[in-house]
Amino acid sequence: MTIKDELQKLLDILPQDLREILENHPQRDSLVEVVLDLGRRPEARFPDKAEYLREAPITQAQIDDCVSRVGSFGGDNRAGIELTLHRISAIRNRSGKIIGLTCRVGRAIFGTIGMIRDLVETGKSILMLGRPGVGKTTALREIARVLADELNKRVVIIDTSNEIAGDGDVPHPAIGRARRMQVAHPNEQHQVMIEAVENHMPEVIVIDEIGTELEAVAARTIAERGVQLVGTAHGNQIENLIKNPTLSDLVGGIQAVTLGDDEARRRGSQKTVLERKALPTFDIAVEMHERKRWVVHESVADTVDTLLRGRQPSPQTRTVDENGKLSITRQLTAINGRGGNVTTLDENFASQRQQGSNWRSSGRMAPLQAVPTELNGSNAPKSEFDRLLSQEASFDTSDLEFDENSRVPGPNGEDLPLHIYPYGVSRHQLEQVIKVLNLPVILTKDIDSADSILALRSHVKNHAKLRQLAKSRHLPLHMIKSSTIPQITRGLRRMLNIDDPEFSDENELQLFLHNGTDDEMDALEEARLAVEQIVIPKGQPVELLPRSAQVRKMQHELVEHYRLKSNSFGEEPNRRLRIYPA
C-alpha cells in the first residue's frame, strides 16, 4: 500500500508549540486527529491510545487563530484545507461561536481495496458499513479511483462534506479521473444525487454516509436506472439497517406477511412473519470490522432473508496479513441441521472470481462420470449392496452372480436374488434402478414365484384383493408413495435391508441422467450443484432457471433424492423450481 497524508499542511494550522511537539512525535505517521477544546488540554489521538500534548489549556485566541487558517465552515460544521483530505470539524456554543475543533488527518491510501477488488469489478452496487474511523471514506476514495482510472468508467462522487475529494474547487488527485459534485447543504444531498444521474450520465455514483430516508429513496431510484452505486451508511452490520426504519429500504425494506397454514407449518414458524419487501438497493454489503478484517455478504437479499427467518448467515470474512496475503474464511452455520466448520481459502481470490467461481456464473458445470456398463470388472465402482457384501468375510463378491434359478444367502440371511412382484410401479424405472445400482433383484409377473410385493400406497388402499393375496401367501408387502426414482430406490433398499447412505451415492445420481437429452442433463446438473453447494451447506433456498414441465419433474425427483422439498412457481414459459433447505 502507498500512503499519502500531507500531514504538514494540517500541522501548520495548529498553535506553534503543538506543531513542534507533533512534528517530533515518534508516532507522527499514525496520528488520527487532534482535539482542541476551550479551557482543556490539547489532545492527540492515535489508533491505540490518546495523550495530552501539554498541561496549559487551549485559549479562545488559539481556536480563533486555527479557524482563520482553514476554509469556511459549511452547514455540517465542517471545513477543510484546500487540496488536502484533512477535515476540521467545529463545536459551537449557543450563540454559534466556535469553542472546539476536531482536526482529523485525511490520508489517501492506494491499494486498500485489494480485499474486495473482485467485487468492485463485477459492476454490482456495494454498501460499506463500519464504525467511525475504520476507513470507510478512504475505501470509497480508492474505489472511485480504481473504477475511473483502471476500469475506465464514468464516475461521479457526491461529496457532501468534501471528505472524499478534499476541500476547494479542485478535487484531490487521489480520486483520479473521477468527477466530484459538491453539496451546498447536507439536506440537499438527495437532490444532488438525482441531479448527477440526470445531467452527467455516470456509470458509477459514489456516496458517503447515506443517513436519511430521502437519500435512501434517491439511492433506490439511481440503482433502478442501472447505475452502479458505491456508498456508506450509518451502522456496523446489516442487522442495524434491518432494525432502522429510515434506512431499511437499502436492504429491501421489511414488511409483515401472513402465511397460509401449509407454509407456516413447512417453515415451522408463526403465521405472521417479517419478510423482505423488495430487492435491495445494494447487491453486496461489506462490514468493515477492522482495517484489515472485512466481512462480505455476497448477496444482501439472501442475508436479509436468512436473518428474518431467525438463522445466521454464512458470509465471507476477508483478512490481510502483514505480507499482504489475502485469506477468505466462511462459517457454514447450517449443514443438514448441524453446525458447520470454518472453510479457509488462501488463494488469489480475485483471479478465480474473474474466471467464474460459482456454478451459475462459470458456465462450466462438470458432468458426473458415466457408470461403466460392466460392473463386475476389478476397477468398476461397487454399489452400496456390493460394499455391504464385501464386509462379510464368508462371501467372495467377485464370483457372485445372480440368475432366476440360482439362490445364494445374503448378509442378512435372505435368499438372493430377491424376486419382486411390482404392482402399480413403473417397470421401466424399476429395471433402470436395478441395473444402474446393480441390485440383486429380479422382477416377476407371477405372484406365486415372488418373494415380496412392491406397490404404490394409493393402489394398495383401493385394492383389498391384493392385500388378501399377500396375506394368504405370506408375502411381505412394501409400499411407496409414488413411482419416482427416489421412492423406488428407497423401497428396494428397505426390501434388501440396505441402509440409506449418509451421502449421495454417485451411482444413484446417474439414474437421473440416464439417457437424458442435453437440456435435461444441464437442468439436472444445475439442480444437483445448487443443492450440494448452496442449499445444504448454506441453508438457503435457491431458484433455478426456467424449464419445461417434463424437465421440472425430473428436477423435483432429484431434489427428493436429497430429502429436500421443492416447488414450481411462476407462469409459463418462465415457470421454474425453488429448492428449500431441510
- Poorly predicted segments: 333-402
Main beta-sheet strand count, sense and barrel state: 10 strands, mixed
Shape: elongated
The Rg value, from CA coordinates, equals: 33 Å
Query: Domains counted in the coordinates: how many?
Result: 4
Strand-residue fraction? 15-25%
Descriptors for this entry?
582 residues; alpha/beta; Beta-Lactamase; Rossmann fold; 4 domains; 10-stranded mixed sheet; 6-stranded antiparallel sheet; 20 helices; 31% helix; 23% strand; elongated
What does this structure look like?
The protein has 582 residues and is α/β, with parallel strands linked by helices. It has 4 domains: 3-104, Beta-Lactamase; 112-328, Rossmann fold; 410-492, Rossmann fold (3-Layer(aba) Sandwich), CATH 3.40.50; 516-580, 2-Layer Sandwich (Ribosomal Protein S8, Chain: A, domain 1), CATH 3.30.1370. The protein has a 10-stranded mixed β-sheet, with helices on both faces. Strands 4-3-2-7-6-5 form a 6-stranded antiparallel β-sheet, covered by helices on one side. It has a 4-stranded parallel β-sheet with strand order 24-23-25-26. The longest helix has 21 residues, at 518-538. The chain is elongated. The relative contact order is 0.06. The model is unreliable at 333-402 (pLDDT under 50).
Blueprint of the fold:
Layout: E1 2-4, H1 7-11, H2 16-23, E2 33-37, E3 43-46, E4 49-52, H3 60-68, E5 78-80, E6 87-92, E7 98-104, E8 108-110, H4 117-120, E9 126-129, H5 136-150, E10 155-159, E11 179-182, H6 189-200, E12 204-210, H7 213-224, E13 228-233, H8 238-243, E14 254-258, H9 261-267, E15 272-276, E16 284-290, E17 293-297, H10 300-308, E18 316-320, E19 326-331, E20 342-346, H11 349-355, H12 359-362, H13 384-390, E21 408-409, E22 415-416, E23 418-423, H14 427-437, E24 441-443, E25 452-456, H15 457-461, H16 464-472, E26 477-480, H17 485-495, H18 506-512, H19 518-538, E27 542-543, H20 549-561, E28 565-569, E29 576-580
Parallel strand pairs: 9-13, 9-16, 10-11, 10-12, 12-13, 23-24, 23-25, 25-26
Antiparallel strand pairs: 1-8, 2-3, 2-7, 3-4, 5-6, 6-7, 14-15, 16-17, 17-18, 18-19, 19-20, 21-22, 27-29, 28-29
